[in-house]
Structures are given as structure tokens and as C-alpha cells.
Amino acid sequence: MTDEPLIFARGLVKRFGDFTAVDGIDLEVGRGEAFGFLGPNGAGKSSTMRMIGCVSTPTAGELRILGMDPVRDGTKIRARLGVCPQLDTLDLDLTVRDNLTTYARYFGISRAESRRRADELLRFVQLSDRADHKVEPLSGGMKRRLTIARALVNDPDIVLLDEPTTGLDPQARHLVWERLFRLKQRGITLVLTTHYMDEAEQLCDRLVVMDGGKIIAEGSPRSLIERYVTAEVLELRFPDGLDSTAAYAAKLDGVGEHIDPLPDRVLVYADDGDAALAEVHRRGLTPSGVLIRRATLEDVFLRLTGRTLVD
Hints:
The radius of gyration is 23 Å and the shape is globular. It has two domains: 7-220, Rossmann fold (3-Layer(aba) Sandwich), CATH 3.40.50.300; 230-294, Alpha-Beta Plaits (2-Layer Sandwich), CATH 3.30.70. It is 34% helix and 25% strand. Strands 5-6-7-3-8-9 form a six-stranded mixed β-sheet, with helices on both faces. A four-stranded antiparallel β-sheet has the order 11-12-10-13, with helices on one face. A three-stranded antiparallel β-sheet has the order 2-1-4, covered by helices on one side. It is of the alpha/beta class. It starts with 6 loop residues before the first strand and ends in a 6-residue tail after the last helix. The chain has helices at residues 45-52, 74-78, 96-105, 111-124, 140-151, 170-185, 197-203, 221-228, 245-251, 273-282, 297-305, and strands at 7-16, 19-29, 34-38, 60-65, 81-84, 158-162, 189-193, 206-211, 214-219, 232-237, 258-261, 266-270, 289-294. The model has no long low-confidence stretch (mean pLDDT 92). It holds the Pfam family ABC_tran.
């Protein structure tokens, strides 16, 4: 056990021909940390994760995983990584338990130990009652939990999770979150990408926001909210047909710290939502709908990366 970061990058670059997917990023991930990558499509998250996973060679810069060089020591590093890909790659013809024991054999784990680990992991992800069932009829949430269990079969130091709860219903998502939180409590380092801002707030000790291959913000979820947006957001809806939201937004100039007109409502960023609403009424405006909520990581994400879709 040392204080050396498990993941260390300086000036990390990944190019595909003339396209630069990752453009000189620096990052460090410590032992036992839950670290997240956020960003729109094409931001460079997946390319960075593939380099960390030792399946893509850096074009330039320095990258060390578990104190080793992924180019020279890729096989040794991969043996100490757990990987949960975005799409489940389970063997549908095998039973739930056999998916784990067969995968364990790739790491040279004995049959007896493979079965012991499989049963332990199935208890951990609450699938013991499905151990002898085929995988194909399992629900999406069960398959996701099994994929996470498979990523843990080699007792990894780092678990890489690519969109761990995409496509799951709320109950399944929360169960996966709870299992991942327990892994963090055990001291396992988690590195994840997600498009769910609430997931990042729940799971991540620290995260980076990437855009255009660069890191544009870094910190804990709470520190990013405090740095880039206000404590509260006032959402105002106005009667249809009277004016455009842009026109209403112009009338709200100076209310709060920032005004964001959307097609269906106007967002007013203010540290005190009630005081901002009082000022709205003082100006003679009568919204048809009002919501005062706390600012979230999604507000930060949209403030930093914009609302335009990226293909």
C-alpha cells in the first residue's frame, strides 16, 4: 500500500489519423477512489478508458497504471483490472454461475477457487437464487449485476465501468449503485463513465468533465456545483402565446446570476430562489408554473458543454 496514484497521466494524447480524440490530458486516480468521466459524445471519454484498460496504445504523453507502463506491461496490468463494458457480453448458453467460473479460468484461477469466488460474488450481487439458471431469460438489471460480478472475479485493484446502468429501470439502477458503493467501501478503485448526472453525484468522489478531447473541469461533484453554478435554480414557465421565452428572459435580466432561456421555460440561477421569485413578481411578471430546486451536476454539465447535440 503506497500513496502512489493507481492511474497517472501527463499530457496524454490519442490520435486516429488526423483526428485527436484525447488532447493532452493530465489526471491522477488514487487507491479506493471512485473517479468519473463526464462529457458529451465524442468528448474523449471512451478513448481515455480504452488506454487505461490497456486495449489502446497512447499516441503521446505519459500513462502509468498500477505503477506500470501499459505498453510494456499490458498483460500484467489487465490481470489486475476488472472491466464492465457498456454492452453486456455474457455467454447466453451458460448458466449464471458458469459465466463466472469460466471467466475465472482465463486468469489461471483453479476450478475449486473459481466456484468459491462465483458463489461469493453471486451473493454480493444478489443472484444466488439464479446460479443454475441460463442467462438469456434474465432481466436487464440482473444481467448488469452479473456483468459487474464477472468484472470482480479476478479480485481486481481497479474496476472500469462504462455506462454501468444504461437502459436499467430506476429500481435496478439503485441496486447497482448500492453494490458499487459497497465496492468503494471495500477500498476498490472505481473508474466510470456515465451520462447520468445523478449517478455521478451518487457514486463519484471526484470527476472530470471532458469536451473536445480536453479536461475542462475537475473536482468533487459538490465543488463543481459550487464553482460553476448557484445554490438554487428557479424554473419559470409562462403562458403560451403571450411572448417567447427569450422575451421573458430579457425582462428577467439582473434577476439572479445567470438566465438560461429554454424553449418551454426560463431558468434563473440564484443563490436564493425565493428572493429571485419575489423579484420576478416585483417586475410584474406572472409565471404559470414555478419550481425552485437545488442546482445539480447536470446544470454544471450543460453550463460547461452547452445544450447542442454532438453526433
